[in-house]
């Protein structure tokens, strides 16, 4: 009963369609079946990540492993509304996740996404998403994991990481606000018809200035301070990185946990 309440508090259904894929350094296997998330969370190892889409539209998660780390799930997949997808990560894995939206792919997996596109492919195959895109980053450690949600590359979707059954501080990380609605004009990315803001650039991407990118003379925490633009991001999303040296307030840690990565966490179930 406690686990059911936990799932409900996370905004997750107690039973959804799950595609479970076990990844190792040498091989991967997958199967498609229905399984209560309660059972999954009760028996999963500390390296299980569950992606859940609370958006009212499909999201195509992208996955990029850090250098030397194995590719997971081909680097991308489609996640329909109110669906979940699970991955078991290899020990000490690190990498980033993001959500693509407004995507259209043909049968060969070629196409395009309005935001977060990775070379026009359904399977990103190690490629990163084109900014602006909200990023979730995670590093699994021997004794402690590190994770965060970053707006350093801009914003396209609300996103969160929630640890489950871990020890330590294990705080929530994420951006639940719709930054597209409050994005300054100079940072806006609009739809093809110009009627809608579909993403919000970082000041670094928009202006390519060392002051905003924390490069050159501004390449250290002492000289690269919050700007008017990063402050807008921080006020809207206090639990996310707003710029490169926002570390003290934005990185979270946990031990022996599973993780739920949610797209549009502010939406109702």
From TrEMBL:
What the entry lists under CDD domains is as follows: TLP-PA (cd09218)
Q: Which cysteines are joined by disulfide bonds?
A: 55-264, 103-113, 118-124, 170-254, 175-237, 183-200, 204-213, 214-224
InterPro entries per the UniProt record, alphabetical: Osmotin/thaumatin-like_sf, Thaumatin, Thaumatin_CS
Q: Which UniProt keywords apply?
A: Disulfide bond
The answer to whether the entry has keyword Disulfide bond is yes
Q: Which Gene3D superfamilies match?
A: Thaumatin
Matching entries from Pfam families are given as: Thaumatin
Family named by the database record: Belongs to the thaumatin family.
* Protein name in UniProt: Thaumatin-like protein
